[in-house]
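Researcher: We plan to redesign the surface later, but first we want a full-length starting point. Tokens attached.
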């Protein structure tokens, strides 16, 4: 891996939940440990490293959780993004706002029978979490959630993403974390004096879109024990291992700087 990154600017892109922070019972409880936060800030301080976070969370939410180390942010799987001198808001977001609001009301009414169901309304997306529900009831709740959205899925107004004990409804457009990674690289490249390699870390199925979009000059790191359909360069057990990887990468970049 180090040979691939030699003499290149590193664009470190990472998912949040399950990668930087442990999966928690509710999204609000998923927090960044101080050790991971410190190692990420150390990396961000290098002139030849740029840090970004790519998440299914809303952009403001994930940037607030990660803090100033993230120079670039992508929320809603890349449908909203921001950098030092640019921002992106996908045109499809506003067209589904009223649809999501209606589905959120319907789902709250129809799924109230199931204890532990959590509906996360992200304004332009709606996620049904069943991590706290009894397994058999949670599976049924997810089936009913999908059925509620079936007309919008058939009309291709919305698409359905499968997460860990969750289903998410988003605008049905060909946009994903892979597009987000390339959008960010295209804005970093003119600002640096060398080619840019992406080091991408992710644990979820939606991160596969980024894995697939990257090239031979990039590094793909899978986090957790979920089987990956795309060939990965490295596997880390979870957020504590991610923090240790950041420390090793910082040591490498520090050594490379001392040699020049």
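Model: Full-length starting sequence:
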């Amino acid at each position: 891996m180090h040979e691939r990154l030699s003499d290149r600017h590193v664009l470190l892109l990472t998912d949040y939940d399950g990668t930087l922070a442990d999966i928690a019972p509710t999204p609000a409880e998923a927090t960044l440990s101080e050790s991971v936060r410190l190692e990420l800030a150390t990396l961000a301080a290098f002139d030849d490293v740029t840090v970004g976070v790519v998440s299914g969370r809303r952009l403001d939410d994930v940037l607030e959780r990660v803090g100033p180390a993230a120079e670039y942010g992508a929320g809603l799987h890349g449908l909203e993004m921001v950098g030092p001198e640019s921002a992106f808001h996908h045109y499809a977001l506003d067209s589904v706002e009223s649809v999501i609001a209606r589905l959120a009301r319907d789902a709250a009414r129809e799924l109230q029978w199931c204890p532990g169901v959590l509906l996360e309304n992200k304004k332009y997306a709606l996620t049904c979490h069943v991590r706290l529900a009894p397994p058999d009831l949670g599976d049924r709740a997810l089936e009913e959630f999908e059925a509620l959205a079936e007309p919008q899925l058939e009309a291709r107004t919305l698409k359905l993403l499968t997460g860990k004990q969750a289903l998410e409804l988003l605008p049905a457009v060909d946009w994903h974390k892979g597009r987000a990674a390339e959008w960010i690289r295209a804005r970093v490249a003119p600002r640096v004096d060398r080619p840019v390699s992406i080091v991408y870390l992710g644990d979820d199925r939606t991160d596969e879109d980024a894995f697939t979009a990257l090239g031979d000059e990039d590094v793909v790191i899978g986090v957790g024990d979920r089987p990956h359909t795309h060939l990965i360069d490295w596997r880390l057990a979870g957020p504590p291992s991610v923090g240790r990887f950041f420390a090793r990468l910082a040591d490498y970049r520090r050594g490379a700087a001392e040699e020049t």
